[in-house]
């Protein structure tokens, strides 16, 4: 694995070669990932995997024509061929009036925020194995758990470097760790499965393995003997694990590409009231040790925390440079990209701010409702906002969680759902997208 300085030198050299070969402009991205993964099942080691790979991608422009190529071979001969191929492809590509690098005057300059994204730790396979075994043991120790799908622990490190022909060259490194368990409760046709996991940038921040396993086991047992729920309109409460998907649909609807192509159910709603007054949705790429924190975006623009929803009002789209040009707006520092192809746009550490009520208070007045712990299927129309997904969870009866239910369909429209979301007070930062417990009024349940 290259150091950050070596990675920066590699992409800067590739840009110089592209300009020499006839490119009017270019950018290059280097990514190296190394990871160790250990899995166990039924108390026995099942697999140990170690992977390490590095890739480099080059995007060149000849006028308004562009092409992208990538390679996992970083030898001098391979990179020289990569440059020649990219320039030749660009000369034959169709013109794109919106294509181009990010504006030079908007690129990151000066110091970067201290994100603490790399802890420098390198846990051994033996340490990961002990963590995985402890998680599974705790899960299997829950009364009612009858089998295991396994438990795992992973450790990884990445180095990323980006350069553009405007003179930008920066890199950074991240580490990532995770621990998980998945178990089965019950017997025969009555079996139920569930899981738990935690991910962190610093190994020391990982939740205890026993706590993860215990949660997985308790969740699986709680789902045993599910019943049905009568069909009708009723309040639906999403636990944080399931509710985060609603923010994912929101983020997808405000990306520049969806807006520019007129394929978003939030089209035309910029600066309008989307959520109830008091609701805040914030994107925070500078969260210390955040899972998606980064100092610059996929085009070299500085990242900044910002409220995407402020007091319920939609304040911005998520724009890369191409979609910003198409919409006659400025890029917002949300460009995301892989090794190949042009950048798109997306959020980083996205969260919906907590409200004043506890989850119990949020449900206290619900005579009959549904508490969703898992969503199934992809029944969401990004153009209309129509929403219909399979769900399982628990009945809410007289303000209390009651028996488990499964094979439920939850339906509505995201525009209406967003207006009728009420957040609880239990927000925790555990994922890339975080929400507290959410209550949504007036959804249609198709049950028994």
From TrEMBL:
Per UniProt, residues of the Metalloprotease TldD/E central domain are 120-224
| An example molecular function term from Gene Ontology annotations | metallopeptidase activity
Question: Where does the record place the Metalloprotease TldD/E N-terminal domain?
Answer: 34-90
**What InterPro entries does its record include?**
Metalloprtase-TldD/E_C, Metalloprtase-TldD/E_cen_dom, Metalloprtase-TldD/E_N, PmbA, TldD/PmbA_N, TldD/PmbA_sf
**SUPFAM superfamilies, per the entry:** Putative modulator of DNA gyrase, PmbA/TldD (SSF111283)
- Residues forming the Metalloprotease TldD/E C-terminal domain are 231-447
Transmembrane stretches, start-end: none
Recorded GO CC terms: cytosol
Q: Which residues form a coiled coil?
A: none
* Gene Ontology BP, a term: proteolysis
Kindly give the Pfam families that the UniProt entry links to this protein.
Answer: PmbA_TldD_1st, PmbA_TldD_2nd, PmbA_TldD_3rd
PANTHER family for the chain:
METALLOPROTEASE PMBA
| Family label | Belongs to the peptidase U62 family.
Q: What is this protein called?
A: PmbA protein
| Species for this entry | Edaphosphingomonas laterariae
């Amino acid at each position: 694995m290259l150091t950050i300085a070596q990675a920066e030198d590699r992409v800067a050299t590739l840009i110089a070669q592209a300009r020499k070969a006839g490119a009017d402009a270019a950018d290059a991205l280097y990514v190296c990932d190394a990871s160790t993964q250990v899995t166990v099942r039924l108390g026995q080691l099942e697999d140990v995997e170690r992977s390490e790979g590095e890739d480099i991608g080059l995007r060149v422009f000849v006028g308004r024509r562009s092409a992208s190529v990538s390679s996992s071979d970083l030898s001098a001969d391979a990179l020289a061929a990569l440059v020649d191929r990219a320039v030749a492809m660009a000369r034959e590509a169709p013109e794109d009036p919106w294509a181009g690098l990010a504006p030079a005057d908007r690129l990151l300059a000066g110091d970067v925020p201290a994100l603490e994204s790399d802890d420098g730790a390198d846990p051994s396979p033996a340490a990961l194995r002990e963590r995985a075994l402890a998680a599974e043991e705790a899960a299997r120790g829950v009364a009612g758990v009858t089998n295991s799908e396994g438990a795992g622990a992973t450790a990884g490190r990445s180095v990323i470097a980006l350069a553009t022909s405007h003179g930008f060259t920066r890199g950074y490194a991240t580490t990532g760790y995770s621990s998980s368990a998945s178990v089965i409760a019950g017997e025969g046709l009555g079996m139920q499965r569930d899981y738990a996991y935690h991910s962190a940038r610093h190994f020391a921040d990982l939740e205890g393995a026993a706590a993860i396993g215990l949660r997985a086991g308790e969740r699986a047992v709680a789902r045993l003997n599910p019943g049905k729920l009568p069909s009708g309109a009723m309040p639906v409460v999403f636990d944080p694990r399931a509710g985060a998907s609603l923010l994912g649909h929101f983020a997808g609807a405000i990306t520049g590409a969806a807006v520019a192509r007129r394929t978003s159910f939030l089209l035309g709603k910029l600066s309008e009231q989307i959520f109830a007054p008091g609701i805040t949705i914030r994107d925070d790429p500078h969260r210390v040790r955040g899972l998606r924190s980064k100092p610059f975006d996929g085009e070299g623009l500085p990242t900044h925390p910002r409220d995407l929803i402020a007091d319920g009002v939609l304040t911005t789209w998520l724009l890369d440079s191409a979609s910003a040009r198409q919409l006659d707006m400025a890029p917002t520092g949300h460009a995301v990209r892989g090794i190949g192809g042009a950048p798109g746009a997306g959020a980083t550490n996205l969260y919906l701010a907590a409200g004043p009520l506890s989850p119990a208070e949020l449900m206290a007045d619900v005579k009959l409702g549904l508490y969703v712990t898992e969503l199934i299927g992809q029944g969401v129309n990004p153009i209309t906002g129509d929403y219909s997904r399979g769900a399982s969870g628990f009945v809410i009866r007289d303000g209390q969680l009651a028996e488990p239910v499964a094979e439920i369909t939850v339906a509505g429209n995201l525009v209406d759902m967003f207006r009728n979301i009420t957040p609880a007070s239990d927000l925790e930062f555990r994922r890339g997208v975080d929400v507290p417990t959410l209550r949504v009024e007036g959804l249609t349940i198709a049950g028994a």
